[in-house]
Amino acid sequence: MLKQLKECKLSIIASCFLAGYIFACSSIQYSVDARSQAVRSEALPGVPDLATVESSISVGERFTTSADKCEIIDSQTALVWLRTPPSTTQSFTHAVSTAITSTWCGHAAGTWRVPTIKELTTLINTHVLDPEEWLNKPATAGGPGFNLRNNNYSLYWSSTSSKDKHPDIWYLDIRIGAINTVSAGNSSTIRLWPVRDIEKYSSHQTGHPLQRGK
C-alpha cells in the first residue's frame, strides 16, 4: 500500500510539472504572437497583414521551391527567399553589404537585400510551438521546405531600425517567433536571411519551371 501511495504521489507531481510546463510555453508563445502580430499588422505596401498571410491559402499553395532548389517563392507576399541562408554570423553593416553584392542562385549583384522586420515575421507560423522546425519541414510534411542550418544561432537581421533605440536594429529569433532590437555592431549571434522581390526573378531562371510541393 505504501509503495502504491508513493507511486501515486510521484504521478501527481509529474502531471503538475507537465501542466505547468505546457502553461508556461503557451504563455510565452502567446506573448510572442501578440508582438509579432502587431508588427505584421503595420501598413507596408505589398506585404499582407497577418490574417491574410495565414488564412487565405494552404501552405502548399503559398510556398514553392524553385527547380534548382535554391529559392523558396512566397506567392502571398511576392517575396523570394534564399532556401539555405548563409551559416555565418555577421554585423548588420556586413549583412547589408553581403546581401547586395552576392549572386546567390545565379542572380546578379544588387538583386538580394536584407528583409524588413515585417517581411521576416510573415514567415512565422503562430499555430506551432517551434516555428523553425515547421519552416524546415518539406511540403510533403506540411511545411515550406526551407533548409535553415541554424546550429546554435537562429537569429536573423532585418533592415528595420528601432524608433526608440536608434541606431539599434530589429531582428527575428525564428525558434519562437520573437522579435527584438540589438546594436548594429553585434556580429557574434545574428545572421543574414537574404530576400528579393519576385519581379526581380532573373532571366537565367526563365527555362526553369517552378516545382510545387518539393
Feature tags:
single chain; 214 residues; alpha+beta; Mannose-Binding Protein A, Chain A; four-stranded antiparallel beta sheet; 6 helices; 33% helix; disordered N terminus; disordered C terminus
Explain this structure.
The protein is an alpha+beta fold and 214 residues long. The chain has helices at residues 2-40, 50-55, 59-62, 92-101, 117-121, 131-136, and strands spanning 63-65, 71-74, 79-82, 155-161, 169-173, 178-182, 190-191, 195-197. The chain has one domain: Mannose-Binding Protein A, Chain A (Roll), CATH 3.10.100. A four-stranded antiparallel β-sheet has the order 1-2-3-8. A four-stranded mixed β-sheet has the order 6-5-4-7. A hairpin with a 7-residue loop joins β4 (155-161) and β5 (169-173). The radius of gyration is 20 Å and the shape is globular.
Summarize the structure.
With about 210 residues, this protein is α+β, with helices and mostly antiparallel strands. It has helices at about 1-40, 50-55, 60, 90-100, 115-120, 130-135, and strands spanning about 65, 70-75, 80, 155-160, 170-175, 180, 190, 195.
The domain count comes to 1
Summing up helix and strand content along with how strands pair, one would put the structural category as alpha+beta
- Average pLDDT metric: 75
β-strand amount: 15-25%
**What is the C-level CATH assignment?**
Alpha Beta
Please report the number of helical segments.
6
Largest sheet: 4 strands, antiparallel
What is the correct CATH architecture? Roll
Radius of gyration over all CA atoms, rounded:
20 Å
Helix and strand pattern: HHHEEEHHHEEEEE
